[in-house]
Amino acid sequence: MTPAAVCDGGALDCGGGLLIAIRRALNGIGVGEILEIRSRAPSVEIDLPAWCDLAGHPLEQTARDGSTTSYFVRKGR
After folding, report:
1. How far apart are CA 38 and CA 69, in angstroms?
2. Most distant CA pair in the chain: distance in Å?
3. What does the alpha-carbon distance between residue 10 and residue 33 come to, in Å, rounded to a whole number?
4. Which of 12, 32, 39, 70 could make an S-S bridge to 18, C-beta 3.0–4.6 Å?
5. What is the phi/psi pair of residue 39, to 5°?
6. Between the CA of residue 19 and those of 39, 66, 70, 72, what are the distances in Å?
7. What is the number of domains present in the chain?
8. Is 6 inside any structural domain?
9. Pairing, β 5-8 against β 59-65
10. Rounded Cα gap, residues 61 and 1, in angstroms
11. What whole-number distance in Å separates Cα of residue 37 and Cα of residue 12?
12. Angle at 58 between CA 57 and CA 59, to 5 degrees
């Protein structure tokens, strides 16, 4: 899956600023394009899918590389 943009959240969790970074990154891509979100925070694995459902941005795929997980989100609406 080839993303249109990448948002590297590092160790930020969804309550600690990651969602703000994601929203900014989503503003830079078109509807239907993919944003890759990279995170090392374990809680994102639970929180991000729920946020994607609420925000209308489908979570298409996840991939783990060492301590970093990539979440591939398709921009909705």
Report:
1. 6
2. 33
3. 22
4. 12
5. -150, 145
6. 11, 22, 15, 14
7. 1
8. no
9. unpaired
10. 9
11. 11
12. 115
Look up the pTM and report it.
0.94
Residue 38 lies in a domain: yes
pLDDT in tens, 12-59: 999 889 999 999 999 999 999 999 999 999 999 999 999 999 999 999
Residue 27, both tokens = 């503003």
Opening angle at CA 38, ends 65 and 60, nearest 5: 90
Domain membership of residue 27 (yes or no) is yes
Alpha-carbon distance 26 to 17, whole Å? 15
Contact 7, 46 (CB under 8 A): no
Inside any domain, residue 73: no
Strands 59-65 and 68-74: antiparallel
| Domain encompassing residue 22 | 15-65
